[in-house]
């Protein structure tokens, strides 16, 4: 057996073995990487160098600002105002509160980019409100979890930024635009399902549509929605980079939360910063360790070996895409999202481009898959958070999620096999990315 083969076996075998032994993902990645470096007799300085390279990127500077802006707005009363706006827009339909749940998550995703933040902020309002109105607790928890994934696709999503960094030379602005329509498509699919179930179970309608109430809701939520406008307009017009837009969003969020809404005192900012740092440190440490793992994969030419192996089995584009989706869905069920993005991108992106898939379309597909993993056992962090808020047993939550999984997978297949959903908007906004 060659040295490369043994090193690959050490890297992947030790990594999988440690995961099966229930080691934390950080230790599984770090120890398997370190063992491989030692076997190959590569200096530890190279290990540290590659870890530093993994986080030494200008585009990654936007992540701390996006995380902080999301935490500020989550704590500052944004959820109440977005609920009002969503209710004024869709609350009048059968199952109105379910539609409000989906639409509010769509709006909130444009501010926080985090399913956990969505559930923690909106879920504490939506779940008790829907149960009190007569909705089944399991259905309520299911729609809350399923809709939270929109935040991963609708900008600003720091996971899209992580993918852009891992892929290299991918436009963050283009990637942001690529996620807009798929995020909206997911919301529409969920609202269609909610309407069907609401008619079947005779869930109540909300108040009749009122233009006056809509104007009032727009007025109350104006400052919250401006956060999204600042980010998107700044990036799309080229006035500022993603990092500069994120910094502006932080300043705006701080101003709105503490000087406009004033629902929390200024001293609460210290707690917000601590929570942001906890989230950020987890992301950045995982990215650094995972970058070392990814460097070893590239050094051992594992991506090329996998590409050749897949192409030797089949060249059928549909089958390859299905296999990638199955692999990513499984990975999302057992591994942290940032780690999954960094590890799988250099492996799967060459396969995707080899079969003619656009990198932006692939990025959205990857994030969508891993997002479904967040609400799927055995790891499913969103699943556990929702269970705590809804006070529902895990087995009941999983049972309630089964029909939602079908809806999510249907939307995922549309995004995978109809690239226009991901590419139409970025091609309109940034034709230069395709040499037009």
Brief descriptors of the model:
21 helices, 2 domains
Task: Please describe what this structure looks like.
The structure is a single chain. By secondary structure, this protein is mainly alpha-helical. The protein has 2 domains: 1-42; 43-429, no CATH class. Helix content is 80%, strand content 0%. The chain has helices at 3-20, 25-39, 44-55, 62-75, 78-90, 96-112, 115-132, 137-148, 150-153, 158-167, 172-201, 211-236, 242-261, 269-299, 302-313, 317-334, 337-354, 359-373, 381-390, 394-417, 420-429. It starts with a helix and ends in a 7-residue tail after the last helix. The relative contact order is 0.14. The model has no long low-confidence stretch (mean pLDDT 83).
Note the overall shape: globular
Q: Quote the average pLDDT.
A: 83
The separation of the N and C termini measures 49 Å
Q: Return the domain count.
A: 2
**Largest pleated sheet:** none
Low-confidence stretches: none
Q: Radius of gyration in whole Å, from Cα? A: 22 Å
The helix count comes to: 21
SS strand fraction: under 5%
N-to-C series of helices and strands: HHHHHHHHHHHHHHHHHHHHH
Structural class: mainly alpha
User: How many beta-strand runs?
Assistant: 0
Helix content: over 70%
Outline of the structure:
The chain is built from 21 helices and no strands. It is mainly alpha-helical.
Architecture blueprint of SSEs:
Blueprint: H1 3-20, H2 25-39, H3 44-55, H4 62-75, H5 78-90, H6 96-112, H7 115-132, H8 137-148, H9 150-153, H10 158-167, H11 172-201, H12 211-236, H13 242-261, H14 269-299, H15 302-313, H16 317-334, H17 337-354, H18 359-373, H19 381-390, H20 394-417, H21 420-429
Helix pairs in contact: 1-2, 2-14, 3-14, 4-13, 4-14, 5-6, 5-12, 6-7, 6-8, 6-11, 7-8, 7-19, 8-19, 8-20, 10-17, 10-18, 11-18, 11-20, 11-21, 12-13, 14-17, 15-17, 16-17, 16-18, 17-18, 18-20
């Amino acid at each position: 057996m060659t040295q490369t083969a043994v090193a690959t076996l050490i890297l992947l075998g030790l990594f999988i073995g440690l995961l099966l032994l229930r080691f934390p993902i950080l230790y599984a990645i770090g120890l398997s990487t370190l063992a491989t470096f030692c076997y190959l007799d590569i200096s530890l300085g190279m290990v540290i160098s590659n870890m530093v390279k993994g986080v030494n990127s200008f585009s990654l500077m936007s992540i701390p600002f996006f995380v902080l802006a999301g935490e500020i707005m989550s704590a500052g009363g944004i959820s109440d105002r977005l609920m009002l706006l969503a209710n004024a827009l869709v609350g009048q339909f059968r199952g109105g509160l379910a539609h409000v749940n989906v639409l509010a998550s769509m709006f909130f995703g444009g501010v926080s980019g985090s399913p956990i933040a969505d559930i923690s902020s909106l879920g504490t309002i939506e779940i008790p409100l829907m149960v009190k109105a007569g909705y089944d607790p399991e259905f309520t928890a299911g729609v809350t979890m399923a809709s939270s994934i929109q935040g991963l696709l609708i900008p600003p999503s720091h996971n899209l930024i992580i993918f852009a960094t891992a892929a290299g030379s991918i436009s963050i602005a283009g990637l942001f635009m690529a996620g807009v329509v798929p995020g909206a498509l997911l919301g529409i699919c969920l609202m269609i399902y909610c309407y069907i179930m609401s008619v079947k179970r005779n869930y109540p309608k909300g108040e009749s549509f009122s233009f006056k109430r809509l104007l009032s809701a727009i007025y109350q939520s104006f400052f919250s929605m401006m956060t999204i406008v600042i980010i998107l307009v700044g990036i799309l017009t080229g006035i500022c980079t993603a990092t500069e837009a994120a910094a502006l969003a932080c300043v705006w969020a701080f101003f709105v939360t503490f000087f406009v809404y004033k629902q929390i005192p200024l001293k609460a900012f210290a707690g917000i910063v601590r929570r942001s740092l906890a989230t950020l440190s987890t992301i950045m440490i995982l990215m650094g360790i995972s970058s070392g793992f990814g460097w070893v994969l590239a050094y051992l030419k594992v991506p090329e070996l996998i590409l050749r192996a897949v192409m030797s089995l089949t060249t059928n584009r549909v089958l390859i895409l299905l296999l990638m989706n199955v692999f990513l869905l499984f990975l999302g069920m057992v591994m942290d999202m940032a780690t999954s993005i960094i590890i799988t991108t250099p492996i799967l992106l060459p396969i995707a481009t080899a079969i003619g898939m656009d990198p932006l379309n692939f990025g959205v597909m990857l994030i969508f898959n891993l997002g479904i993993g967040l609400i799927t056992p055995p790891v499913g962090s969103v699943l556990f958070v929702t269970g705590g808020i809804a006070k529902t047993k895990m087995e009941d939550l999983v049972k309630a999620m089964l029909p939602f999984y079908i809806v999510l997978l249907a939307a995922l297949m549309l995004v995978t096999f109809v690239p226009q959903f991901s590419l139409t908007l970025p091609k309109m906004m940034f034709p230069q990315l395709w040499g037009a």
